[in-house]
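Standup, Tuesday
Yesterday: got the pipeline producing structure tokens again.
Today: sanity-check two examples.
Blockers: none.

Example 1:
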Amino acid sequence: MMIPFLDLAQPHRALEENLVGVFRAALRRGAFVGGEMLEEFERAFAAFCGTHDAVGVGSGTDALRFALMACGVGRGQTVVTVPNTFIATAEAISQAGARVDFVDVDAETFNLSATSLEEFLHNKCRMDPGSGRVIHSQSQSVVTAIVPVHLYGQPADMDPILDLAARFKLAVIEDACQAHGAEYFSRKQEQWRRVGSMGRAAAFSFYPGKNLGACGEGGAVTTSDEDVARKVRMLRDHGQVRKYYHQMEGYNGRLDAIQAGILRAKLDHLPKWNERRREVASGYDELLAAANGEVALPSEPGWARSVYHLYVVRAASRDRLKAHLASRGIGTGIHYPIPIHLQKACETLGYRIGSFPVAESAAEEVLSLPMYPELTRELQTQVTECVLEFFSEPKACVAAVGSQHDAENTHRPQQTLGSATFLKSH
């Protein structure tokens, strides 16, 4: 039996009548952009996240770009984020006009390391005595914001990040594109907080494969800052406050009514879908315990409630394991094989192999196993049995499994990184 990495058909079959009803309602109203469907979803999603506002936009990239711009990020500034994320995080920063810079990640969670952030602010920046702002020593640009990424559905450790942001006068814009409904226990506030409610603003993506996915593109900015919400609403709609009255140069970044209606219909199911993902993750933890350290399982700190957008393991022989699973009809993913600072598109930033060793090490070893709410225990057992089979085979057989995969990459130059190799992007 083929086991896909992601199954988008099953949940949509189950909700087909509801979703078709959304389309019928839009046809009958003739309202396809903005209007009641969008406003209803925005109210519901803001309440779900625990914020005053949610503003629907065209994509997760739009959401992060608009959130940055609405928070005052622009030219001559630097925004700090992590290198192990989808490139849209960096694109949103550069498209807002700012310079992107990186700090390394925590070795257990792969999320932004507050320790690395503090080292960056102390060692690569200086404080301007006149303005009290942080200046990046090399570029001489003002550091104005931090974008922590809640990667794979798990929140970053926000308390120390927010403390550093307050100390150095930096805005925090959460990249929550993979973490709809994830929760963080703030030791400082002694309460659980939903991601998207802790920074000045946050960005969500509703790409179809997300925990809450549209039937197309979509995104949202959440915030409890009324000024930020007002500016995002203008930015998504050509800078208009009302039709044909433009206060700023904006974009065409609206969330259409049908997608908003679909998201509203799905939102009621999101808590049970997330809980089911946690059950699947627990099942993987149990079934892979027999791997005897050959596979490193995801780490979920006590202050985090992950929603497991992805279930990501680490293995030194990742590429061969992936090939082995593919030979058994099991789909997997790599999130992400090349850190942003080593991508061809970002070579002008001047980073090299070794700049961010934790993120680079993760890129060589991470493998995402099938993860979706409808994944049965039977299918999970098949996946994990194939993983355990791989590690139980004699080394010569294990090497043979990956030989074809390795041959396909012989044309790509390799550079040594510690005891492993990193396939450099060209």
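Example 2:
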Amino acid sequence: MTGIEHKAARRSPFLIKGALAALVVAAAAAALWQTPAISAEDAVTIPPPAVDEKPVAGSEKAVFAGGCFWGVQGVFQHVRGVERAVSGYTGGGKDDAVYETVGTGRTGHAESVEVTYDPSKVTYGQLLQVYFSVAHNPTELNYQGPDEGTQYRSTIFAENPEQKKLAESYIAQLDKAKVFSKPIVTTLETGKTFYPAEDYHQDFLTLNPTYPYIVYNDLPKIENLKTMFPKLYSEKPVLVLASSKS
């Protein structure tokens, strides 16, 4: 099954109508709640970065890609100090920043999340720590869980030279410490423009907590964030659609 077929399959409840279909989806979700999340990325306890940015007031942006943006967005929306986390596409051109086109894997885009944060409350290094340990598996390059293709690659889109330097330093630190069973394959890209995804992708985890894909692959990430980073965890997520309507 191709990456775009995986996506179509897990979004099929949007196309299903009728009470019977709703019951089938609900039953599947309930069953998955009772199943160990063996296909969800297992969180790994890792040390904080030895080198980090200075915690100054203001707003900064960071862009991360690591598989389906639903889960990555959901994780960062629960991080204290994050002001906004938007699902989107990075790496390709503006005209190709459309879900169906990105799904072909031939646009250069990766499903990504643009994080706007207050560095006086959460630093870039702390975001990197969450990204590498909870949000995705950095030892898998062009796939995460059931999703395969370059559009699901593990990539940090550095916004400036300092972010690139910090990310490179942290990757080297983690590889040297051998905190993962395999080498980190996360790539670094610079000079790329982020394009927001369609509205129906925004806040997907929060709005669809019983959706089988979310239950199986992404809710465990939120629980890992809460358990592993209690000081960074915020029970109330910062939502894109809610803020855009306010």
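Quick observation on example 2: The chain has one domain: 3-44+60-245. The first strand starts at residue 60 and ends at 66.
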